Structure prediction request, 113 residues.
Amino acid sequence: MDTGTTPAAPTAPPPPADTAMADADYLGRWTGVEGMYLVVAAKPGGGVTMEMQWDLDNSGTFDGSVTAEGLRFMRDRVAETAVPTDGDATGLKYLAGKQDCLTVKPGEGYCRD
Prediction:
């Protein structure tokens, strides 16, 4: 018998609380290799500002947002995401073994001690 109602679409469960990072968890200074760094600050009105030196020749400040995947931002017209990982996932020998890290792509990562 059709009651005229449609069932609600299934939704994905939220990530476990122990693995999801809150906005405040991203704030502060993250250190890369060879002088690379990432500084994340809260932006008035929401979102974050990301000041970074991502290689020897390039630095800049970008507006970002905190998503379920990590910190999303646009850099050089490319959408990037800094994903929470460990140091091994960065692919950088200097960061290997560290636990509190963000990886943008292989060879670009930042950690906190």
